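Methods: example folding runs. The two proteins below were folded one after another, and each record is reproduced exactly as written to the output file, sequence line first and structure-token line second.
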Amino acid sequence: WGRWSQTYIKDSKWDTAMDVYAKALILKLDNKLFKGNIGYVAQEWSKAVKEKEGTEQAEAVLLRLLARFPEIPQVKTSAKGYAYGLIDSLKSSKEYEKDALSAVERCRKLIGDEDEVGKLIGNIYYNIAESYTQKNDWASAVEVYVKAVECFPNDQRIRNNAMTTWGLWIQSHYESVNWSQSFEVCNRAIQEA
């Protein structure tokens, strides 16, 4: 079955390669290797389509495969991997926040788990804020989290990261023995957090 499918994969006949594995499943050849191969083909197919036709078409392929093989966890893993990889690839985008949040929305069905979606959104804001904290630009990092909390008020991860960032900003003034600034930031944190 594997060799048969590989002949189609080499020619980028992805649908036919999946048909081979679907036949194996129909024949009750419930082999872990076949399920793993289905996940692999899903991964490689979506990657090839993304390179040739773009993200929307790749996402459509994965949605189709999730519908076709809902019982195969390896397809779900490939779809999630695609979503995470796409969002990670946007880090260098000039409009990372907008682009990454848009990608999460588009990939929501690929991710398939709202808790996982929340983690991704939290990671996006963490990445943005972290770019500021690395430059000791605490005010900008805090503003990122203020905005994130406004958009996602019930997301405890974002709220925790916001409080941690406030604390690090206060600590930076404390360590430099700048008591008035430390006190000012502390008051602001109490009012805004």
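Second run, written to the same file directly after the first:
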Amino acid sequence: VEVSPGNIMHNHVRLAKCNELTADGQIAPEATLWPQIEAIVAEGSHDILLSSEHFRGEFAKPGHTFTGICSFFASRGYRPVVVTYIRDQPSLLNSRYVQNQSRLFEQISFDDFITRTLEDGSIGPWKYLAPYIDNKICDLTIVPFETATRRGLETNFVEHCGVSSTDGLELTGHKRPNAGAKTVFAAYLIMDK
């Protein structure tokens, strides 16, 4: 059984928001996703993998239920392990800017984007690592992103999840290679119109 927010809502933000769990790891009465996860956990014969790029931002927000997720699994005999990738900051800034522009999110110069990002602190890894560092109910594994991508990010990830062999694993490779300067320029022109 595969449970993912994409299967339910075609949106992987739902899992990261985790508004179906209380701070002490209890499932809320109106929950629809977490009862499905509970059914898998109740079997007790599987490692459980939750993955969402949105965990990074959601778990850094005040009052988020990261502790609730850990408590949910800990009370059922699991020890949560967080695997996080830390990217070279200039590379991350460039990638985020390219994504911002190629998806037509807003028309903003690179200099203004950098200034805003530095001011709001969204680029610093410590803001996002805070919930996991010295957390007594989970373990933290930090992996350099650049090292992971050399071998293949998917391969690296499954190895950090304890999969000893990737034989038979269908690797998808880069889904969105860097759009590049021409794409950013075209997007900027489109947004200018």
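Comment on the second run: The beta strands are 81-86, 139-144.
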